[in-house]
Design a protein that fits this description.
heterodimer; A: mainly alpha; 5 helices; B: about 150 residues; two-stranded antiparallel ribbon; 4 helices
Amino acid sequence: MGKNLQLKAARAAKDMTQADLAAAVGVTRQTINAIEKGDYNPTIKLCVAICKALGRSLDELFWEGEPSC
Amino acid sequence: MLKKQDNLDERQDFIRNNIFKHAFLTLLFSGFAIEVMRMMELVTEEGGVPHLFTFCAALSVLVLFVEMIHHDIYPISEKTQRFTYILLGVLGATLTGLNIYELASGEAAAFIGGTLNSPLFSLATGILFLLPVIWYTIHKLQQKKEPQEDA
């Protein structure tokens, strides 16, 4: 699993730190870091929570390659 | 919110399950190792097989604590956790000190007739109790040095 650069970029665009995003979705900062580094595969529940916190879709943040239709 | 009552998120919960598995396997294999040692007559019942089983239990607890500290997963609150490690450290230091004294003063022997003896196992158990405290201190010092945002 590669790095999730989309998530990192979306978080940065919202001017949020890993700790801010972690607090917004109710996980630890280390978990957000692990997702961004591609070390942890989050559940769909957490993915949806992250998408809502960043105002993005699942496709935009978690789909690898071209977004699906 | 995704946080559970015990304050562990889904990643920590997943890792914690693996840690329990590792601790259980440690207990299983170390128990098996004792049986092998007993069959090979490296240790006798009188020489401290019960102490050796205590050592195995301490080893499993050590795996549990060290892995939990390493992955920042604590089953207890920050305050209680610090108290637990201090208590472990005091117990470990006492056990280690007493056994070193007994062995050094000649009150007890590490080997009797070519087999391992109980003070040796008690000493090892004391050292095992000390290890999580050392690991916890190192981990906390490292965390202080680390930047808040990982690359």
